UniProtKB/TrEMBL annotation, chain A:
Keywords associated with the record: ATP-binding, Nucleotide-binding, Sulfate transport, Translocase, Transport
InterPro entries: AAA+_ATPase, ABC_SmlMolc_Importer, ABC_transporter-like_ATP-bd, ABC_transporter-like_CS, P-loop_NTPase, Sulph_transpt1
Record-annotated ABC transporter domain positions: 9-239
Bilayer-crossing regions: none
Protein name: Sulfate ABC transporter ATP-binding protein
SMART domains cross-referenced by the UniProt entry: AAA (SM00382)
Gene: cysA
Highest taxon above the source species: Bacteria
Pfam families for this protein: ABC_tran
Entry keyword Zinc: no
Gene Ontology MF, one: ATP binding
Automatic annotation (TrEMBL), chain B:
Purpose: Part of the ABC transporter complex CysAWTP (TC 3.A.1.6.1) involved in sulfate/thiosulfate import. Probably responsible for the translocation of the substrate across the membrane.
Subunit structure as annotated in this protein's UniProt entry: The complex is composed of two ATP-binding proteins (CysA), two transmembrane proteins (CysT and CysW) and a solute-binding protein (CysP).
Membrane protein topology class: Multi-pass membrane protein
Predominant cellular place of this UniProt entry's protein: membrane
Name assigned to this protein: Sulfate ABC transporter permease subunit CysW
Subcellular location: Membrane
Biological source species: Lachnospira hominis
Keywords for this protein: Membrane, Sulfate transport, Transmembrane, Transmembrane helix, Transport
Length: 357, 277
């Protein structure tokens, strides 16, 4: 298969401004058929604008948008074959669950029996059997989202767009719904794009992540690729629970690195005073400034050479307390300058007498 | 402190009651008693007078036309202002409110100048046989002008609060304007719209200033109820004037009651939709 055929959704050099604000700057995106892609970025990074341009709710100022090989810039939203789940769900509040899901089919003037069959099938699929006659206000957040999903796919669109689908749902239900949505999208086999600002959501849900910042695409790749090999300073700092270090060259094992660096908690080993240390020559002294119990893990804030970094210790390990002196070994950092990021391992690993853990 | 509060409370209540009695209740009682001063038969005779009946019919006709036109205009204006982004939107929404601040007499004069003898339009209108000034079309125009903010002002806040998501969702599914409006927007704005229609009717029936300038006071032709009342009053026919006034007052009371009923249902449905969130 040629590459052209493989990409199902494509944006080529797309620009969009609102007044003086550039919401999209030279966006280039390729999305494969059947993939679930996450548009990830902080709020105001332009991810919703991309979604709206795909849906046809906003027009691109310049550039081309292709869906299934057709340039859709001038195609009306309703003719683009798109299902959209709004952030607010936008359920018709004066219509029942059944009427909401049937709306698009009725507009398409489908046969009555078909509509009945299809809507019941969808209600079954999203697990809302018995709630057909309820109004949106009588549903929980999660149930509303299920209705929105069923409504969006009722007319069998080729592309499903979801705008922050879990934003209005509380944390516990959110995790459950995430798994549910992933399974359902697999089952239906529809190419989907999810807009989210929640990295955990994007990492867990998506086949591919498109990371946006300030109206530009920062990096595209699989979740593990994006997480483990950030290519830009933004990507390095946005993903994970990071600390940015100004003076990384002062840290043992990273001498000679000129700029700044990003350290993730999982890169840091923390040793209490009496614990045995694997790389005794490469540890720095640090003081515990804060201990946060997080249930399955203990989060520590450490003062080290004038910077504060975050590190984890397991619940099973010996407890450390605030003010305690500890030894810190940093396995890896992301070295960053103004434009790019690259991964740097502690120099002990590249030395002759390195010990591999 | 408690006691002081109580005193202030009762003081204010009394003040309101006295004010409303002097300003509203006494005059209304006076209108009705004067209307029946010479007995029921005199009242019926005054109301059944040929010119009186014509003025009632004209008022009803003007009100119905005005309400229909303003309902359409109000909906379109509210739709334009709440559903689209464009330059000059603020100017348009300010212009919609203009009739509320302009004196109705000036509104009448504007139309007199626009369509009257001195207007450049006048020769064309006469050629086409259209008579606006000192005729029913002029009265309708003036009344529409004076009352057009009422409906859009009621529904704009409701439409703004509802946002555009549901309409966008419907449009994305291929629904046309008419479908979107009747199925999605109308259920939202139903109560506000009815409320606006009631206010608009009330104002249209009672309009005096603008209509007075443009109607020409032709008895039996261009005299609406308020104008008829003025004419009979000027002719010292107090029974006639007050009989007609009492009919207007009764209409106003009916509207007031309708208004309160609508407000009650509107609030109720609003509370329900707030519970949604």
């Amino acid at each position: 298969m040629s590459e052209k055929k493989e990409s199902y959704v494509e944006l080529k050099n797309v620009n969009k401004s609102f007044g003086g604000f550039e919401a999209s700057k030279d966006i280039n995106i390729n999305i494969k058929k059947g993939h679930l892609v996450a548009l990830l970025g902080p709020s105001g990074s332009g991810k919703t604008t991309i979604l709206k341009m795909l849906a046809g709710l906003e027009n691109a100022d310049s550039g081309d948008i292709y869906i299934a090989g057709t340039r859709v810039n001038d195609v009306k939203p309703k003719d683009r074959g798109i299902g959209l789940v709004f952030q607010s769900y936008a359920l018709f509040r004066y219509k029942t669950v059944y009427e909401n899901i049937a709306f698009g089919l009725k507009i398409e003037k489908r046969d009555k029996n078909y509509i009945k069959k299809r809507v019941n099938e969808l209600i079954e699929l999203v697990g809302l059997k018995g709630m057909e006659k309820r109004y949106p206000r009588q549903l929980s957040g999660g149930q509303r989202q299920r209705v929105a999903f069923a409504r969006a796919i009722a007319t069998q669109p080729q592309l499903l767009l979801l705008d922050e689908p879990f934003a209005a749902i509380d944390t516990k239900v959110r995790k459950e719904l995430r798994g549910w949505l992933r399974e359902l999208i697999n089952e239906v086999g529809i190419t989907s794009i999810v807009v989210t600002h929640d990295q955990e959501e994007a990492l867990e849900l998506a086949d591919e992540i498109i990371l946006t910042n300030h109206g530009k695409v920062e990096q595209t790749g699989t979740p593990s690729d994006i997480y483990n090999n950030p290519k830009t300073p933004f990507a390095a700092a946005f993903l994970g629970d990071n600390s940015v270090i100004e003076n990384i060259s002062e840290f043992k094992g990273f001498e000679g690195i000129p700029g700044k660096a990003v350290i993730r908690p999982e890169f840091v080993n923390v040793y209490a005073q009496d614990e045995s240390i694997e790389h005794a020559a490469s540890v720095d002294d640090a003081v515990v400034s804060k201990v946060v119990f997080k249930g399955n893990i203990i989060e520590l804030k450490l003062n080290i050479k004038g910077s504060e970094i975050t590190a984890y210790r397991n619940v099973g390990q010996k407890q450390v307390i605030q003010g305690e002196n500890v030894k810190v070994f940093i396995r890896k950092v992301f070295e960053i300058d103004d434009t790019k990021a690259s991964s740097r391992e502690n120099s002990i690993y590249s030395g002759n007498d390195s010990i591999v853990i | 402190m408690q006691k002081e509060n109580k005193i202030i409370k009762w003081l204010l209540i009394t003040l309101c009651a006295v004010f409303l009695t002097v300003m509203l209740i006494l005059p209304l009682i006076y209108v009705v008693t004067t209307a029946f001063r010479d007995g029921v038969s005199a009242f019926l005779k005054a109301v059944g007078d040929k010119y009186a009946v014509k003025s009632i019919l004209l008022t009803l006709k003007v009100t119905v036309i005005t309400v229909i036109v303003n309902t359409f205009f109000g909906i379109f204006a509210a739709w334009t202002i709440t559903k689209y982004r464009f330059k000059g939107k603020k100017i348009i929404s300010a212009l919609i409110d203009l009739p509320l601040t302009i004196s109705p007499v000036i509104a009448g004069l504007i139309f007199l100048l626009t369509f009257g003898r001195n207007s450049f339009l006048y020769p064309y209108l006469t050629k086409m046989g259209i008579k606006i000034i000192f005729a029913v079309p002029g009265i309708v125009l003036a009344t529409i002008f004076v009352t057009f903010p009422f409906i859009s002002r009621e529904i704009i806040p409701v439409m703004t609060a509802a946002g555009t998501d549901e309409e966008e969702a419907a449009a994305l599914m291929g629904a046309g304007f008419f479908k979107i409006f009747t199925q999605v927007t109308l259920p939202h704005i139903k109560w506000a719209l009815l409320y606006g229609i009631v206010l608009c009717s009330a104002r249209a029936m009672g309009e005096f200033g603008a209509v007075s300038v443009i109607s020409g006071h032709l008895r039996g032709k261009t005299n609406t109820m308020p104008l008829h009342i003025e004419v009979t009053y000027q002719a010292f026919d107090f029974t006639g004037a007050f009989a007609m006034s009492s009919i207007l007052v009764v209409m106003a009371l009916i509207i007031l009651i309708t208004r309160n009923i609508l407000e009650y249902y509107g609030k109720k449905s609003e509370e329900e939709s707030v519970k949604d969130e």
